[in-house]
UniProtKB/TrEMBL annotation:
Entry annotated with the keyword Nucleotide-binding: yes
Keywords of this entry: Aminoacyl-tRNA synthetase, ATP-binding, Ligase, Metal-binding, Nucleotide-binding, Protein biosynthesis, Zinc
Name recorded for this polypeptide: tRNA glutamyl-Q synthetase
UniProt family annotation: Belongs to the class-I aminoacyl-tRNA synthetase family.
Domain Glutamyl/glutaminyl-tRNA synthetase class Ib catalytic: 6-248
Organism field: Erythrobacter neustonensis
Top-level taxon: Bacteria
Length: 280
Protein backbone atom coordinates (compact mmCIF):
# COMPACT_ATOMS: atom_id res chain seq x y z
CA UNK A 1 0.00 0.00 0.00
CA UNK A 2 1.21 3.53 -0.77
CA UNK A 3 2.08 5.71 2.21
CA UNK A 4 -0.04 8.87 2.57
CA UNK A 5 1.53 11.82 0.75
CA UNK A 6 2.85 15.04 2.24
CA UNK A 7 2.22 17.78 -0.34
CA UNK A 8 2.51 21.53 -0.22
CA UNK A 9 1.37 24.75 -1.79
CA UNK A 10 4.16 27.33 -1.75
CA UNK A 11 2.98 30.69 -3.07
CA UNK A 12 5.15 33.79 -3.23
CA UNK A 13 3.37 36.84 -1.84
CA UNK A 14 4.27 39.02 -4.81
CA UNK A 15 0.68 39.48 -5.96
CA UNK A 16 -2.82 38.13 -5.45
CA UNK A 17 -3.58 34.45 -6.09
CA UNK A 18 -5.48 33.65 -9.28
CA UNK A 19 -7.23 30.61 -10.74
CA UNK A 20 -3.96 28.88 -11.67
CA UNK A 21 -2.87 29.03 -8.03
CA UNK A 22 -6.25 27.67 -6.93
CA UNK A 23 -5.83 24.71 -9.30
CA UNK A 24 -2.36 24.02 -7.93
CA UNK A 25 -3.48 24.23 -4.31
CA UNK A 26 -6.47 21.95 -5.00
CA UNK A 27 -4.25 19.40 -6.80
CA UNK A 28 -1.82 19.27 -3.86
CA UNK A 29 -4.61 19.25 -1.26
CA UNK A 30 -6.57 16.45 -2.93
CA UNK A 31 -3.49 14.27 -3.39
CA UNK A 32 -2.82 14.39 0.35
CA UNK A 33 -5.95 14.84 2.40
CA UNK A 34 -8.33 12.08 1.32
CA UNK A 35 -5.60 9.47 1.84
CA UNK A 36 -4.77 10.63 5.38
CA UNK A 37 -1.73 12.63 4.26
CA UNK A 38 -0.73 16.22 5.04
CA UNK A 39 -1.18 19.33 2.93
CA UNK A 40 1.19 22.15 3.90
CA UNK A 41 1.12 25.88 3.18
CA UNK A 42 4.52 27.53 2.96
CA UNK A 43 4.80 31.25 2.21
CA UNK A 44 7.83 31.87 -0.01
CA UNK A 45 8.48 35.43 1.07
CA UNK A 46 12.14 36.06 0.29
CA UNK A 47 11.76 37.95 -2.92
CA UNK A 48 13.13 41.21 -1.50
CA UNK A 49 11.08 44.33 -2.21
CA UNK A 50 8.63 42.36 -4.42
CA UNK A 51 7.47 40.42 -1.36
CA UNK A 52 4.37 41.74 0.44
CA UNK A 53 3.99 39.85 3.74
CA UNK A 54 0.46 41.16 4.28
CA UNK A 55 -0.71 38.96 1.38
CA UNK A 56 -0.09 35.78 3.43
CA UNK A 57 -3.34 36.29 5.36
CA UNK A 58 -5.21 36.94 2.13
CA UNK A 59 -3.85 33.62 0.77
CA UNK A 60 -5.13 31.78 3.84
CA UNK A 61 -8.55 33.39 3.42
CA UNK A 62 -8.52 32.30 -0.25
CA UNK A 63 -7.70 28.67 0.61
CA UNK A 64 -10.39 28.54 3.32
CA UNK A 65 -12.90 30.03 0.85
CA UNK A 66 -12.07 27.20 -1.59
CA UNK A 67 -12.90 24.75 1.20
CA UNK A 68 -9.31 23.51 1.67
CA UNK A 69 -7.69 22.49 4.96
CA UNK A 70 -3.98 22.85 5.46
CA UNK A 71 -1.13 23.00 7.99
CA UNK A 72 1.04 26.10 8.13
CA UNK A 73 4.80 25.55 8.06
CA UNK A 74 7.34 28.34 8.69
CA UNK A 75 7.67 30.99 5.99
CA UNK A 76 10.96 31.22 4.12
CA UNK A 77 11.91 34.52 5.77
CA UNK A 78 12.27 32.64 9.09
CA UNK A 79 14.66 30.09 7.60
CA UNK A 80 17.49 32.23 6.30
CA UNK A 81 20.03 30.68 8.70
CA UNK A 82 19.49 27.20 7.25
CA UNK A 83 20.01 28.54 3.73
CA UNK A 84 23.22 30.30 4.76
CA UNK A 85 24.52 27.10 6.42
CA UNK A 86 23.89 25.03 3.28
CA UNK A 87 25.57 27.70 1.14
CA UNK A 88 28.63 27.58 3.42
CA UNK A 89 28.81 23.80 2.97
CA UNK A 90 28.68 24.16 -0.80
CA UNK A 91 31.32 26.93 -0.71
CA UNK A 92 33.64 24.84 1.44
CA UNK A 93 33.37 22.02 -1.11
CA UNK A 94 34.11 24.38 -4.02
CA UNK A 95 30.74 23.63 -5.61
CA UNK A 96 29.61 27.25 -5.91
CA UNK A 97 31.56 30.23 -7.19
CA UNK A 98 31.04 34.00 -6.89
CA UNK A 99 29.63 35.87 -9.87
CA UNK A 100 29.42 39.64 -10.21
CA UNK A 101 27.89 39.72 -13.69
CA UNK A 102 24.81 41.82 -14.32
CA UNK A 103 22.04 40.65 -16.63
CA UNK A 104 23.24 42.94 -19.40
CA UNK A 105 26.79 41.57 -19.09
CA UNK A 106 25.42 38.03 -19.32
CA UNK A 107 23.40 38.96 -22.43
CA UNK A 108 26.43 40.68 -23.96
CA UNK A 109 28.47 37.49 -23.41
CA UNK A 110 26.11 35.70 -25.81
CA UNK A 111 24.24 33.54 -23.27
CA UNK A 112 21.67 31.17 -24.76
CA UNK A 113 18.14 30.78 -23.43
CA UNK A 114 17.55 27.78 -21.15
CA UNK A 115 14.38 26.41 -19.57
CA UNK A 116 14.55 29.05 -16.80
CA UNK A 117 16.04 32.15 -18.43
CA UNK A 118 19.54 32.66 -19.77
CA UNK A 119 22.16 29.94 -19.32
CA UNK A 120 25.15 31.55 -17.67
CA UNK A 121 28.18 31.39 -19.99
CA UNK A 122 30.62 30.92 -17.08
CA UNK A 123 32.37 34.29 -17.34
CA UNK A 124 33.20 34.64 -13.61
CA UNK A 125 34.07 30.95 -13.32
CA UNK A 126 36.83 31.37 -15.88
CA UNK A 127 38.19 34.83 -15.09
CA UNK A 128 37.33 35.08 -11.33
CA UNK A 129 34.82 37.53 -9.87
CA UNK A 130 35.66 41.18 -9.21
CA UNK A 131 36.01 41.35 -5.38
CA UNK A 132 34.96 45.01 -5.37
CA UNK A 133 31.47 44.26 -6.70
CA UNK A 134 28.52 42.49 -4.98
CA UNK A 135 28.51 38.81 -5.84
CA UNK A 136 25.89 36.11 -6.27
CA UNK A 137 27.03 32.47 -5.93
CA UNK A 138 26.45 30.03 -8.77
CA UNK A 139 26.44 26.26 -8.79
CA UNK A 140 29.32 24.82 -10.79
CA UNK A 141 27.12 22.36 -12.70
CA UNK A 142 30.10 20.48 -14.14
CA UNK A 143 31.66 19.87 -10.73
CA UNK A 144 28.27 18.98 -9.30
CA UNK A 145 27.76 16.31 -11.96
CA UNK A 146 31.26 14.96 -11.33
CA UNK A 147 30.35 14.52 -7.65
CA UNK A 148 26.85 13.14 -8.01
CA UNK A 149 27.18 11.03 -11.14
CA UNK A 150 24.01 10.43 -13.18
CA UNK A 151 20.80 10.98 -11.20
CA UNK A 152 17.19 10.08 -11.82
CA UNK A 153 14.05 11.71 -10.46
CA UNK A 154 10.49 10.65 -10.88
CA UNK A 155 7.53 12.67 -12.01
CA UNK A 156 4.22 10.96 -11.26
CA UNK A 157 2.82 11.83 -14.68
CA UNK A 158 5.91 11.96 -16.92
CA UNK A 159 7.73 9.01 -15.34
CA UNK A 160 11.47 8.68 -14.57
CA UNK A 161 13.66 11.61 -15.67
CA UNK A 162 17.45 11.70 -16.03
CA UNK A 163 18.59 14.83 -14.15
CA UNK A 164 19.97 17.18 -16.78
CA UNK A 165 21.78 20.25 -15.47
CA UNK A 166 22.51 21.49 -18.99
CA UNK A 167 18.91 22.75 -19.18
CA UNK A 168 19.60 25.44 -16.59
CA UNK A 169 23.40 25.59 -16.41
CA UNK A 170 25.28 27.29 -13.56
CA UNK A 171 22.23 28.64 -11.75
CA UNK A 172 22.35 31.16 -8.90
CA UNK A 173 22.02 29.50 -5.48
CA UNK A 174 22.84 32.56 -3.35
CA UNK A 175 21.48 35.87 -4.60
CA UNK A 176 23.40 39.13 -4.32
CA UNK A 177 20.83 40.43 -1.83
CA UNK A 178 19.76 37.21 -0.05
CA UNK A 179 21.30 34.03 1.43
CA UNK A 180 19.42 31.85 -1.07
CA UNK A 181 17.77 31.76 -4.46
CA UNK A 182 14.46 30.02 -5.05
CA UNK A 183 16.25 26.78 -6.01
CA UNK A 184 18.28 26.45 -2.82
CA UNK A 185 15.49 27.61 -0.49
CA UNK A 186 12.78 25.38 -1.93
CA UNK A 187 14.99 22.28 -1.92
CA UNK A 188 15.98 22.77 1.72
CA UNK A 189 12.42 23.60 2.76
CA UNK A 190 10.81 20.62 1.07
CA UNK A 191 13.28 18.40 2.91
CA UNK A 192 12.78 20.20 6.25
CA UNK A 193 9.00 19.99 5.89
CA UNK A 194 9.05 16.28 5.03
CA UNK A 195 7.36 16.79 1.66
CA UNK A 196 7.08 13.46 -0.15
CA UNK A 197 5.24 14.57 -3.31
CA UNK A 198 6.27 17.99 -4.63
CA UNK A 199 3.14 19.15 -6.42
CA UNK A 200 3.38 22.24 -8.61
CA UNK A 201 2.74 23.50 -12.12
CA UNK A 202 4.47 22.13 -15.21
CA UNK A 203 6.18 25.52 -15.68
CA UNK A 204 8.58 24.45 -12.90
CA UNK A 205 9.35 21.03 -14.40
CA UNK A 206 12.86 22.07 -15.48
CA UNK A 207 13.73 23.31 -11.99
CA UNK A 208 13.39 19.77 -10.63
CA UNK A 209 16.59 18.73 -12.42
CA UNK A 210 18.44 21.25 -10.25
CA UNK A 211 16.57 20.34 -7.10
CA UNK A 212 17.38 16.64 -7.56
CA UNK A 213 21.05 17.57 -7.98
CA UNK A 214 21.01 19.71 -4.83
CA UNK A 215 19.39 16.89 -2.87
CA UNK A 216 22.24 14.60 -3.87
CA UNK A 217 24.91 17.19 -3.03
CA UNK A 218 23.40 18.04 0.35
CA UNK A 219 22.37 14.51 1.37
CA UNK A 220 18.64 15.35 1.46
CA UNK A 221 15.76 12.88 1.08
CA UNK A 222 14.40 12.53 -2.45
CA UNK A 223 10.65 13.04 -2.89
CA UNK A 224 8.55 12.26 -5.97
CA UNK A 225 7.24 15.12 -8.07
CA UNK A 226 3.87 15.82 -9.59
CA UNK A 227 3.93 18.62 -12.17
CA UNK A 228 0.35 19.27 -13.16
CA UNK A 229 -0.57 20.85 -16.51
CA UNK A 230 -1.24 24.58 -16.34
CA UNK A 231 -4.64 26.14 -16.58
CA UNK A 232 -4.49 28.44 -19.57
CA UNK A 233 -6.54 31.53 -20.33
CA UNK A 234 -8.86 31.46 -23.36
CA UNK A 235 -6.09 32.99 -25.49
CA UNK A 236 -3.73 30.14 -24.54
CA UNK A 237 -1.61 32.40 -22.30
CA UNK A 238 -0.55 31.44 -18.76
CA UNK A 239 -3.03 32.85 -16.27
CA UNK A 240 -1.68 35.78 -14.36
CA UNK A 241 -3.11 38.88 -12.83
CA UNK A 242 -1.25 41.10 -15.24
CA UNK A 243 -3.15 39.52 -18.13
CA UNK A 244 -6.44 40.44 -16.54
CA UNK A 245 -7.50 37.17 -14.88
CA UNK A 246 -9.47 38.11 -11.73
CA UNK A 247 -7.78 37.32 -8.41
CA UNK A 248 -9.28 34.83 -5.96
CA UNK A 249 -9.59 37.67 -3.44
CA UNK A 250 -11.65 39.72 -5.89
CA UNK A 251 -13.95 36.75 -6.61
CA UNK A 252 -14.30 36.05 -2.89
CA UNK A 253 -15.09 39.68 -2.10
CA UNK A 254 -17.64 39.76 -4.93
CA UNK A 255 -19.56 36.99 -3.14
CA UNK A 256 -18.75 34.03 -5.44
CA UNK A 257 -19.01 30.59 -3.80
CA UNK A 258 -15.43 29.30 -3.45
CA UNK A 259 -16.45 25.68 -2.96
CA UNK A 260 -18.40 25.67 -6.21
CA UNK A 261 -15.40 27.20 -7.98
CA UNK A 262 -13.16 24.51 -6.41
CA UNK A 263 -15.44 21.78 -7.77
CA UNK A 264 -15.30 23.33 -11.25
CA UNK A 265 -11.52 23.43 -11.04
CA UNK A 266 -11.45 19.76 -9.99
CA UNK A 267 -13.34 18.89 -13.17
CA UNK A 268 -10.87 20.93 -15.24
CA UNK A 269 -7.94 19.27 -13.49
CA UNK A 270 -9.39 15.88 -14.28
CA UNK A 271 -9.57 16.84 -17.98
CA UNK A 272 -6.03 18.24 -17.89
CA UNK A 273 -4.54 15.09 -16.37
CA UNK A 274 -6.92 12.19 -17.00
CA UNK A 275 -4.33 9.55 -16.09
CA UNK A 276 -3.18 11.12 -12.80
CA UNK A 277 -5.25 8.95 -10.49
CA UNK A 278 -3.70 5.77 -11.86
CA UNK A 279 -0.09 6.98 -11.62
CA UNK A 280 0.02 8.56 -8.14
N1 LIG B 1 6.96 30.07 -4.85
C1 LIG B 1 6.81 29.57 -6.17
C2 LIG B 1 5.76 30.36 -6.91
O1 LIG B 1 4.94 31.00 -6.29
C3 LIG B 1 6.39 28.12 -6.22
C4 LIG B 1 7.51 27.24 -5.87
C5 LIG B 1 7.25 25.74 -5.93
O2 LIG B 1 6.11 25.30 -5.92
O3 LIG B 1 8.25 25.04 -5.96
O4 LIG B 1 5.79 30.34 -8.12
Amino acid sequence: MDCPHVTRFAPSPNGHLHLGHALSAIAAHDLARPGGGRFLLRIEDIDGPRSRPELADEFRADLAWLGLEWEDVPAQSTRLASYAAAAETLKARGLIYPCTCTRSEIEAAGAREGSDGLIYPGTCKHRGADPARPAAWRLDAEKALAQTGPLVWEDALAGPQAADMSLLGDIVLVRKDLPASYHLAVTLDDAADGVTLVTRGADLFGASHVHRTLQALLGLPVPRWHHHPLLLADDGQKLAKRRGSPSLAARREAGEDGRVLAQQLRVQLCHLEPDAAASI
